[in-house]
Specification:
This is Phosphotransferase enzyme family protein-like protein. By secondary structure, the protein is α+β, with helices and mostly antiparallel strands. Among the domains are: 113 residues, Phosphorylase Kinase, domain 1, CATH 3.30.200; 129 residues. The chain has 12 helices and 11 strands. The strands form 4 sheets. A 4-stranded antiparallel sheet has the order 1-2-3-4. A 3-stranded antiparallel sheet has the order 5-9-10. The protein starts with 9 loop residues before the first helix and ends in a 12-residue tail after the last helix. The C terminus is likely disordered.
């Protein structure tokens, strides 16, 4: 374990599991209530019926699929107790719905029969892009898929806002950043730190990148000060006086390095921040915009949907300017050889694929840098769509 990495509190996580499992066990007992709820929300379509095997769980949410006699399935998305911070669940769901332009069914007054906020949306057919790319025979469609993903990134890039945070409609009915940022890290700290202090969290949008990076420093410092233990990996069996002494030295070294790292990060903020755009504009950034959350038609290679825009925020433009994660598509080939994700040795096949991946990444970064140079020099400010994979 890295001396600088701070793991979340495993005991605190276990308490979340104690909340989740009873809820999960009793979930099907509420299915008739959920069917009636969906029927009422979408009146005129007939009775909604739960689709067998129509429950899909993510890291924080559960999606339940319902069908109608007239066709057109829908998905009900709810935060999962024990995996989502209770105080943030409403804000999290409303923010996601706002970014989806689907706020009709998500406001502060509406809850599902389970007492949880929700999003009710059309069910989008398609196969997981990650699973599809791991299949034999997907290579021919890869260039088309890359172009579609590039288009998604560019469309997001052309949206810009004057502050950092989440979107909602303002008094004029226009989309604007009116909500504070709620990031994945913030939520992870909330569920990974016992009684997580939130008094330093912003309650309004942030106006510059410097303030955002300073807030990130404060989050990690708060995590460090609120550790109940140092999560030090000890030796197995009985400890001698010598090993105890060594452990104490390691603990002291770990604590010192963790503090220095967080202090040093604050001093590096000027390196992360570009003075030209410290005050914006700020660009939408979706941390989970990758192959796990994209659906594709396996016959045509057409991307049919993006199923998770949770924790999307208008963010400092550095986030959107990093080489897009379309480069990670080649990792799907590597993942096929080592689905466990932890290869200790490179087999001959894996080594060949690894070389392809490295070359592909270098080519993609060159294309991205060339596109960015053209963007800087074009008075229209529009990115050039590059051909190729």
């Amino acid at each position: 374990m890295s001396l600088l990495a701070v793991n979340y509190d495993a005991i605190w996580y276990a308490e979340g599991s104690d909340v989740y499992w009873p809820w999960n066990t009793s979930f099907m007992q509420h299915m008739s209530d959920l069917e009636q709820f969906v029927t009422t929300q979408l009146s005129g379509r007939g009775p909604a019926r739960f689709i067998p095997d129509g429950i899909h769980d993510g890291s924080y949410n559960r999606v339940v699929r319902f069908g109608f006699p007239s066709g057109g399935d829908v998905a009900l998305k709810i935060p999962v107790p024990g995996k989502t911070d209770r105080d943030l669940s409403q804000e999290k769901i409303v923010n996601e719905a706002a970014w989806m332009h689907c706020t009709t069914h998500t406001n502060n007054q509406l809850l599902s029969p389970l007492g949880l906020p929700y999003i009710l949306m059309d069910w989008v057919p398609g196969e997981s892009l990650r699973d599809f790319l791991a299949e034999e025979g997907s290579s021919a469609l890869r260039p088309s898929i890359l172009q579609q993903m590039a288009s998604i990134y560019l469309q997001l890039y052309h949206l810009s806002f004057p502050s950092i945070g989440s979107v909602a409609k303002d008094a004029t009915g226009e989309w604007a950043i009116t909500q504070r940022p709620l990031t994945m890290d913030m939520h992870q700290f909330a569920i990974g730190i016992p009684q997580c202090p939130k008094d330093h969290w912003p309650d309004v949008p942030l106006e510059n990148s410097s303030d955002y990076f300073a807030f990130v420093v404060q989050q990690h410092t708060t995590q460090l000060w609120n550790l109940r233990n140092l999560n030090l990996e000890g030796s197995q069996g009985e400890e001698t006086t010598q090993t105890q002494s060594n452990s104490h030295k390691q603990v002291a070294n770990m604590a010192r390095r963790r503090y220095i790292a967080r202090y040093g990060f604050s001093k590096l903020i000027p390196q992360f921040r570009d003075d030209k755009d410290n005050l914006g504009p700020f660009i939408p950034f979706c941390p989970d915009l990758d192959t796990r959350n994209l659906l594709v038609d396996p016959n045509t290679g057409i991307i049919t949907g993006l199923i998770d825009v949770e924790f999307t925020n208008a963010m400092p433009p550095q986030f959107a300017r990093d080489p897009p994660t379309v480069d990670s598509l080649y990792w799907e080939v590597l993942y096929k050889h080592h689905p466990g994700g932890a290869a200790l040795e490179l087999t001959r096949d894996l080594e060949a694929e690894w070389e392809k991946y490295l070359q592909h990444t270098k080519d993609q970064i060159k294309r991205y840098e060339r596109a960015w140079d053209e963007h800087i020099h074009k008075t229209s400010g529009q990115l050039v769509c590059l051909e190729g994979d």
